[in-house]
From TrEMBL:
Similarity comment: family membership: Belongs to the glycosyl hydrolase 3 family.
CDD domains: beta-trefoil_FSCN_BglX-like
Function: Catalyzes the hydrolysis of a non-reducing terminal alpha-L-arabinopyranosidic linkage in ginsenoside Rb2 (alpha-L-arabinopyranosyl-(1->6)-alpha-D-glucopyranosyl) to release alpha-D-glucopyranosyl (Rd). It is not able to hydrolyze alpha-L-arabinofuranosyl-(1->6)-alpha-D-glucopyranosyl (Rc).
Highest rank taxon of the organism: Bacteria
Any Pfam family: CBM_6
Protein name: Exo-alpha-(1->6)-L-arabinopyranosidase
InterPro entries in alphabetical order: Actin-crosslinking, BXL, CBM6, Cellulose-bd_IV, Fn3-like, Galactose-bd-like_sf, GH, Glyco_hydro_3_C
Keywords: Hydrolase, Signal
GO molecular function, one term: xylan 1,4-beta-xylosidase activity
CBM6 domain residues: 835-951
One example of a Gene Ontology biological process annotation: arabinan catabolic process
PROSITE patterns in the cross-refs: CBM6
Amino acid sequence: MTAPTPPTPPFRDPHLPFAKRIDDLLARLTLDEKVAFLHQFGPAVERLGVAAFRTGQEALHGVAWMGPATVFPQAVGLGATWNTDLVRRVGEAVSKEARAMRARDDRVGLNVWSPTVNLLRHPLWGRNEEGYSEDPRLTSAIATAYTRGLRGDHPTYWRTAPVLKHWLAHNNETGRDVTSSSVRPRVLHEYDLRAFKETVEAGAVAGVMPAYNLVNGRPNHVSPYLREELRTWTDEELLVCSDAGAPSNLVDSEHYFDTHEEATAAALQAGVDSFTDHGTDSSTIVARIRGALERGLLSEADLDTAIRRQLSVRLRLGEFDPHHDPHAGTGEFDTPAHRELAREAAEQAIVLLRNDGVLPLAADTRIAVVGLLADECKLDWYSGTLIHRSTPLEGLYERFGAERVEFAEGVDRVLLKTSAGTLLKVPASPEAADGVRGAEGALDPALLAGRTDLPPLTADGTGTELALVDWGEGVLTLRAPDGRYLSVAEDGLLRASADQPGGWIVQETFRLEPHANGHLLRHLGTDRPVCVAADGVRVAGDGTEAEVFEVVVVERGEDAVARVADRADVVVVVAGNDPHINGRETEDRTTLALPAHQERILAAARASGVRTVLALVSAYPYAVEPGRLGAVLWTAHGGQAGGTALARVLAGDVSPAGRLPQTWYADDADLPDLLDYDVIGSRQTYLYFEGRPLFPFGHGLSYASFSYADLTVELDDSAEGDGRARIAFTVTNTGDMTADEVAQLYTRAVDPSVTRPRRELLDHRRITLAPGATAAVSFDVPLSAFAFWDVARRGRRVEPGPYDLLIGGSSEDVRLRGTIVLGGEAAVARPARRHGVPAADFDEQSGTEIVDLTRVAGDAVTPVGGGAGELVYRACDFGTGTTGVTVTVAGEGTVELSLGGAGSTATLALGTPTPGPYDYVTVEAPFAADGVHDLHLRLRGPLRLAHVGFSG
């Protein structure tokens, strides 16, 4: 007799709503199984046939860390395309490769941690390469396009599930787990939240990842904005995944909670649904959750809430419906279409910053190619492994012919002489007989860093000539003649064993430190000097005497540049950064300046008298002097096709049409402090910057020219809800080649009552035009796009009055102007007499920062460093009169009130310090005021001001 087939459990029934299926599966899980689900690596539940699940797969510009994959331009390069259709197609390709790779390797995850939507507020941020733009509108447009590509078009099942990084106001690596971003309400709502909000509202986001930093004194992993903002933007169950190690930081580095049980409970209740901590070992997190449950800090219902969000993502990914999942058989990997898309993206990301007519290069041009990046195809921390590669040199060889292109890297070539008179020697690689470069030009993967079977460096009478590459600030790499970088493995020995600098802790960087009559060679990865020992050259141990080296220069980089420039019609200097050195995750930059060695190479090219083109290949802006250069281009590291793309643009096969996604400043003096997140008060980004930039936001030149005409503006404010403005115009290609133009629409409030942006991007469109062709462009803009955050009413408001409409090729290249007059909502005075004034809702401040009111929610204001600060609240309505004032404060110090130099004043002092920072007390004093006045507060001492109230 055949046993009856067991019934299909409801959680596996594809015909039931997701909510019912989740309810069913939750009811079947034991408490132990639920606890285990909360770690990043959730185990399988074999009795239910539920597989293990891992949150997190890096996919910023291709599938990362899982071996060979198509590598697209860095995220900031994708932002520079200003092309949402292209970026959507890149997202589609990345998600298809993730599916194809998972079919071969179940370690590849489909919950992808990408894109990064942190705004590129400050160009010295080490992770500048990961974001799209300094502008929230452009960032959200590009991020929405990428997430739509990652998600796929099926109405039910997602190809991958994107998680946005990093919530919230995160733009510094320096002290990133202990520094707090002071973000006042206007900046929060108009700037930092906006890129997340518009992307989430577009409907292709599965969740977010909180950042390491604190915002207004509270760690992002217990942010009330997860509940108060994020989860109000969509009906979808959004999954919140912690950043790696951040749950432990709540106690270990931030000291925000006393115990890990308290911290874990607080994070879970704030909205964190998956804990990324202690790698693959879930035991620590499991123990903390168990401890929190035993202490009554968590309930099983708290766990259910988090697991429900996890299961929602797993259902959307088709995990429980393999026969219905349309993406299950996706096998598109390294296809011709993906390779072509990588080239197209790299081409569209190139920005022509300056051109005096030297570009494009004629086919018979003799080219000298020089610079540290000329024969490099650099990867960053979030890159996949290259299957194909093209360097600028290789691209120019292919496009112009090797006979017309001559190369000099321009690095100093040196010998390192020991105190005994011997020279450092790089032994031949065992693979040397076959050559270390593969068919695609990359070093053999067998020669990557970490190998300990290769022979270490020695010292003898002949030595090896090394390429000494100076990346700035004294940070060096040393390379053998066959291209292998010197690296240090775990045994401390120096070997030529790396194809590139890389790794979480870079083992390929050194510093030469003057010492006695020579230099110590310090290895930066271990912070130890190098010595020559019996078993080879190694980093010195405790008590080991470091070697003092004499640096013998065989050839200076400038001399090599002069030699090849002498035989050329044009010199192309390829400069920029290595994404693992002097600016990356964990390390901010210190200056906008090009490294001194690269300035020397550029100066040598200029001094040759030959026309010079500077091609910057970098993850961030530089301050360069463009005046003496024939042309300047910039591209982010362009992935596998970057060299081919650059050569095609230089040759004029394609007209450059990338546009700057962030302001390029002329000098470090133009920058605010890296930790100053008040873009309004300190006039940051193109929105508020009042100086003269080196190159403005949105800037980019073309080999064609374009004219703008026929502006029309139509206003429809009669509809219920949000009205619309329709702005239309034409763009004509007046040049002689097909080219793309990026038409940009900005606005500016003509007579604002508060500080508003100098101009603000409303929309943009990238269009392709043949010579003489005209395109009609129109933008349908909701009137809510003209709103600002009114701190008096604690909400967004469109202010009545005229608004300029500025249309053209960049934020400063305005071709058409119009004006629209909006009715909006009139300003009202703050109801100070009735409701008081929340401290953080100031209009202006100096010397203060916002801190947490409590560990759970709310904001207070304190003087920076416990000193003195001032706050101004405009147009406060005191009604028919007040007789007293109260301040809600903690800590110690005084609060002084005045009405802008007229009327009553009051001083309120905390006679006795409160026991702790959250132990607020109310202090009162007489205060007479009536009518509408500006309220001025002076804070002195280490106090926290929460609220000011009035009575009478």
